[in-house]
Design a protein that fits this description.
Layout lengths: L1 H5 L30 E6 L5 H7 L1 E8 L4 E8 L4 E11 L7 E9 L3 E9 L5 E9 L5 E2 L11 E2 L2 E2 L6 E5 L9 E6 L5 H7 L1 E8 L4 E8 L4 E11 L7 E9 L3 E9 L4 E9 L5 E2 L11 E2 L2 E2 L6 E5 L1
Antiparallel strand pairs: 1-2, 1-11, 2-3, 3-4, 4-5, 5-6, 6-7, 7-11, 8-9, 9-10, 12-13, 12-22, 13-14, 14-15, 15-16, 16-17, 17-18, 18-22, 19-20, 20-21
Length: 307
């Protein structure tokens, strides 16, 4: 199954432009392909096929304008593999899905073929398969059939090998919007202590927020205030500080991650401090809230779905 990873190695693309035909006129500069830059895939964005076969937990892909790429894949044991090579891209009429051919040179020489798309939110969706040497039974996805069209013995594999990425240096705050958490997405600690059954959280572009928490007796409490965020190198996990003003004035700190599918969020009150508790940090990941130096795991991890 290790060969399957080779057709998910992410590569970069370039824009195919034309020179000006006007005599004496300036040659227009072709726009930068939207995939050029550094992208991160973690959490729910990692393809389920990679999670199940290679235990992949994170991919950092850098796409260069000179048609070279570099991909670092990390597994659950912290082991890393670096893939690099060159690429070409072709646009397809009537769709924003582009075709891509990757000529990998490190750690082995293979060719992969597939498709990619950068949507209006700036998220990257990507699906490729190794074609030289061919993997018996497999055929690559096509723009005409869309994502999920990788086939094995002519049977489409659906979302198994579809990879999603967010930009490492986003131009907008992906936390902005309204998010809902209920059912199994509610943090176990909130269920146990406050009987919380539903949370509606709205983060605004002016850095204000409103959170409405409803318990099992249908009693709701609204929390409001302001927030600031900060990025961390080599991860899509970001820091967040919330300065709550109602119903009481407190400060909370923690971490969050927005994927193309959901929001993972973990914070703890830090001012006034709660004796024995320390806030989670990006370097230790979700579940790193501690009590007397002991990580509390999933206890305070909150999941949200965008509305």
């Amino acid at each position: 199954m290790k060969k399957l990873f080779l057709f998910l190695v992410v590569a970069s693309l370039s824009f195919w432009g034309c020179k000006s035909e006007d005599e004496g006129g300036p040659t227009p500069t072709p726009p930068t392909d939207p995939i050029v830059g550094t992208w991160i895939s973690e959490g729910a964005d990692v393809a389920v096929g990679l999670v199940s076969t290679l235990k992949t937990v994170k991919i950092i892909a850098t796409f260069n304008a000179n048609k070279t790429y570099n991909v670092i894949a990390t597994d659950s044991a912290g082991a890393q593999v670096t893939y690099s090579g060159t690429y070409t891209v072709t646009e397809n009429t009537g769709t924003t899905i582009r075709s891509i051919v990757l000529n990998q040179t490190v750690p082995t020489s293979v060719t992969s073929t597939g498709i990619y798309q950068v949507n209006s939110d700036g998220f990257l969706k990507y699906e490729v398969i190794q074609t030289t040497p061919a993997i018996p039974g497999f055929t690559p996805p096509t723009a005409g059939e869309g994502f999920g069209s990788t086939k094995y013995n002519n049977v489409s594999l659906g979302q198994t090998w579809v990879q999603n990425f967010v930009p490492a240096n986003p131009t907008k705050e992906y936390l902005v919007g309204t998010w809902v958490s209920e059912g199994d997405n509610i943090a176990p600690g909130l269920k146990a202590t406050l009987k919380t059954k539903r949370i509606v959280a709205t983060f605004n572009s002016n850095n204000t927020y409103s959170v409405v928490a409803t318990d099992s007796a249908n009693v709701s409490v609204t929390y409001t205030g302001t927030f600031t965020t900060q990025s961390n190198n080599n991860t899509s996990i970001r820091n967040i500080t919330l300065n709550q003003t109602t119903p009481t004035s407190v400060t909370s700190q923690g971490i969050y991650r927005v994927t193309t599918k959901d929001l993972t969020y973990e914070v703890i009150q830090t001012t006034p401090a709660i004796p024995g508790f320390t806030a989670p940090v990006a370097s230790e990941g979700f579940g790193s809230t501690k009590y007397n130096s002991l990580p509390l795991g999933k206890t305070w991890i909150q999941k949200f779905v965008r509305q």
